[in-house]
Amino acid sequence: MNVPAPTPYRAPVDEVMLALEVAGLSELLELDVFAHVDRDAIRSVLDEFARLAEGEIASGDRVGDVAHSTFDPASGEVSAPAEFARAYERYVEGGWGALQIPSALGGGGFPTLIATVLQEFFASANLALSLNIVLTLGAIEALLQWGSDEQRALYLTKLATGEWSGTMNLTEAQAGSDLGEIRTLATAREDGTWSLSGTKIFITWGEHTLSSNIVHLVLARTPDAPPGTKGLSLFLVPKFLVAANGELAERNAVRALSIEHKLGIHGSPTCVMEFDHATGFLVGPLHGGMKAMFTMMNNARLAIGLEGPAVAERAYQHAYEYATTRTQGRATSSSTATNSPIIEHPDVQRMLLTMSTSTQAARLLIYRAVAHKDLAHQLGDGPLREHHQEMVDLLTPVAKAWSTDRGLEAASTAIQVFGGMGFIEETGIAQRLRDARITTIYEGTNGIQSIDLAFRKIPRQGGAHARELFDEIRQSLAKHDEPALRHATSLVLGALDVLETTTTWMIEAVTNAPDDALAGATLYQRLFGDVVGGWLMIARAARAALLARPEAARALDEATFFAIEFCGPATALGAVITSGAKRLAPLRP
Ligand SMILES: Cc1cc2nc3c(=O)[nH]c(=O)nc-3n(C[C@H](O)[C@H](O)[C@H](O)COP(=O)(O)OP(=O)(O)OC[C@H]3O[C@@H](n4cnc5c(N)ncnc54)[C@H](O)[C@@H]3O)c2cc1C
Questions:
Q1: What is the pTM of this model?
Q2: What are the catalytic residues?
Q3: Residues 6+ away with beta carbon under 8 Å from 430
Q4: Residue with CA closest to ligand 1 atom 19
Q5: Using one digit for the tens of pLDDT, what is the confidence trace for 140-190?
Q6: Which fold has domain 456-589?
Q7: Ligand 1 — pocket residues by CB below 6 A?
Q8: How far apart are CA 562 and CA 361, in angstroms?
């Protein structure tokens, strides 16, 4: 298709190598299971994947936005742009999907943290296509944890290579945030399989021909199941049934009825799926569907959180380039008589730094959560494993919500940097905002993530896990006493004090005044992310200085900028959070 050239994307490999160090790469590389992985190997993997992302993967990005994936009602087929198919093929040929699959199962045996970087580059280069990969990785994880030996043997290898892809089928018209309303029915058959009937909506990459089979993971209710989420079970429903020898057999009774017309991610088909007595296989225990699906959902929450910095990075690169070439007005700092590039105006500098520092902080937050996840997965049972799992649980809703909120703001700010040209489609920057808009909605809206943080994650064991994290932040900040970081450190510590007080208020309110807690949950999540982000930005600056990295001086200034802009307003934010539900009076009975 003839569309304007895509905006170039440069994968930030150097920056990512620094972020990995801050996230906890050293701890991971000390584990025996990763003895075959070192920093040189990681660097070469990232360099090689960066070339694929910047080249073939990015080449379909603009085409997908303009041409969309399409649906043929006669055949029920969904077609993605040809550029998507080529990029997907390269991904499969390169074996990239198996990088973090355990070596024992034929994969690369790398930490998930490194595969996360590949996902980030993929999402920056082509968000719509990257969703296909995200869902497949989620299906792999769910099967690794909950699948029977037979299911793993039949499906895992092909999913890992990407020859087959995965989907996640939760949403129905009456069941969005409230999955307890799911009605898709699964009835037992005599041969041990299940018959699934119902209609799912909004299923990402629910139908397509990039892969030769699609493995749908479906939440459904059995006839005698208890109401609500407790009665849900998880089923594997392949598009083509699979014979015992692994060969594809007949087409299953699952098909796309239509695809949605959307604000963004046009290349990603969002399907209405009909299950009409489709053959399914139970995954995990009967009525244990939510627990099993949570494996996939938590994986997807971190992956969707990652879309925040991924989109923001791309938007920043484009806005930065524009700001260095567009001239308007004369900057007060200019020594020439001619107009200055807009990057010399303080307000444009403020916009660009807000974008770049929040992108870095969001990246660090996600990587940190994923490193905890890797450690929790690899360490044997014991208090250390539990600690890492608690940190994953605590950080996941913040990583999803805070990072995508910042990504969305950054995409919008990028348009502001472009001025009127940002609103004109030719520049391509508008696509970033349209694509970013979904990230705060799907995979559990950011409002629901915030409620999860306030009502489930924080109150666990009377707030002990949150306090553990706060203590870690305080101890870590005490280690960095570089004069250049003192201002930033005092701002983050001040915001941490507010967060601790607000956390105590929140835990109390959850029990005694739940509406007050609900009214404050989203801003509480914001404050939580600001503090963790501030801490990680200081750790990044300190690490850059320690490693004598060329960007060390700049990293110090970036940590200070972030602390002033994001942690400075903590006291005011704390006051709003604890003001309770009475401020909502205009809409309350
Ligand atoms: C492009 C796209 C792709 C998607 N991909 C998939 C997919 O692959 N698989 C899948 O299963 N689903 C998918 N979804 C569905 C998505 O996860 C849901 O849209 C999302 O969870 C929100 O549900 P909803 O749309 O029904 O909104 P609703 O639940 O109706 O929410 C509307 C608003 O009310 C708020 N709200 C709802 N309940 C509460 C509450 N209890 N307390 C406070 N606020 C509340 C929400 O935060 C939101 O702001 C996709 C959706 C889209 C648009």
A1: 0.97
A2: 443
A3: 415, 422, 423, 424
A4: 442
A5: 999 999 999 999 999 999 999 999 999 999 999 999 999 999 999 999 999
A6: Butyryl-CoA Dehydrogenase, subunit A; domain 3 (1.20.140)
A7: 168-171, 176-177, 202-204, 262, 270, 438, 441-445, 447-448, 451
A8: 9
